[in-house]
Design goal:
Number of strands: 18
Distance between the termini: 85 Å
Number of helices: 19
Shape: flat
Length: 596
Amino acid sequence: MSLPPKPGIYRMLDAKGEVLYVGKARNLRKRVQSYFRASGLAARVMLLMHQAQNIEITVTHTETEALLLENNLIKMLLPRFNILLRDDKSYPYIFVSDNQEYPRIGFHRGAKREKGRYFGPYPSSYGVREALNLLQKIFRVRQCHDSFFRNRSRPCLQYQIKRCSGPCVGLIEPERYTADVQQAVMFMEGKSQSLVRESIKQMEQASDKQDFETAALFRDRIAMLKRIQEKQYITGESGDADVMAIAATLEAACIVVTWIRGGQNLGSKSFFPRMGAESTPWEMLDAFLSQYYLSGRTIPARIYLSEAIVDRALLERAFSEHAGKKIALTVNPRGAPRRWMQMAKFNAADALRRHLAGKIDMQGRFETLRDALKLESTPERIECFDISHTMGEAAVASCVVFDINGPIKSEYRRFNIAGIEPGDDYGAMTQALTRRYRRVKEGEGKLPDLLLIDGGKGQLSAAEAVLQELQLEDVKLVAVAKGRERKPGKEQLFLSGSRRPTILPADSAGLHLIQQVRDEAHRFAIAGHRLRRGRARTTSTIERIPGIGGKRRQALLKNFGGLREVARAGVEDLTRVPGISQELAQKIYDAFHGAE
């Protein structure tokens, strides 16, 4: 194959024409030729070359253009032998509103549509809430939404516990409140030293005016700021930076990214990218960097790396062009960044150790479950369904997915159940399974090897009917009943095609896996049900009736045992409920049966 000595990207294809690997090169001829040497190839590269049947190339004008094209193709094609960053979640920010007499500082995730300033991103929601709690404690700036703020006639609990200055009812002047917001912004910008000096000046001014209450407030603020400075591990550094460290084995890799924003450590996050043909830590870190930063993230001015990478100069140019500012990649940093790097390396090694231990443990559970249920092979994918409702109201079905690595949360699904009798669990299960697997039959998603249903023989029969209707014969079906004592470890497993339940020992790793999957489905269903119930209660069938509020609604449900029984009740039965008059009972009856 005659290739040009120019920059570009190359694609390795299998016999079916599917792309196995996408790579970039400064010199396409030299790079591709390096794959055909007699020895020295890593095991994954040898496997790649064994499967590759064709190579396609695209010549580009520059290396930077090749890097961007490579990144786009990897995200679009998801080649099997490329390292792949599995991180599709948006990150949280702290938001400071603008053009308001009393601005708010609050939690934000998603598109930045509101006008104001955004600080972050933070590695987790926990990090944002920690920071917001600190801001409330020091500066007492409101975090409530505008709808809540505008409708207050008296201060809320936050004012009573000294976490807010009460701007909603005018307990602080706009000018002073604005000054507090500005100081909070200074704090988030990392200007804590200037903030302390300014607070000392304001404390002295208030003291000179004999405004001792205000002086005491600034005194407490100064004390808290100094305590925070003492706790910060990054003294002597300011600005924004990311610290990246990698730990890798032949099985997996972990990359820890620590965020430094405004001179403050916002925490870190562990990534476990899918392993590719890249075999050394520096190759994996090199591949990770472009996917991580060229996907829309804010790129800090300094990026500290645990490994020296070949494409350092290329990535610096590409990141600088992408960010519109100079970006520097540094290896073996000194001073405070060196301490950050040591901590990041430790966290990466520890996270990888725990990840591999969990993976091995999960694999053992899958294999034990195969033996316990006498399956022909170890299941690779398990799905579990559960139904949640309150006395028939706002029924929601959940579907959770597990594989050998644990839960696959991106493939979880919820189904709002409608068009059935309230409280009909069999009907709800039938509807959820039908909706789920009809889509799979149409080519949307994958079928599980093992399907778990939370329930007993009735739910099992309903599930069997759905699978039969959709002609899904290669799915092993198991209903998980709580057993007579309804205690963990006493579960009865009803297998499709078996008359008697299977009871596994309480210490069985296979049973522990079933319990974990079942409990996750239960948690996910309850969360969806509560969300739906909260949205629907103000417009439920009962509460749409004039004269029915929360107390009467609860009384009806408790007396009749659920919404379905309320709907079946006659007028005389309804009047026996405390608080329900003859006239109101007639209205309730008419709401369910239609007025004549």
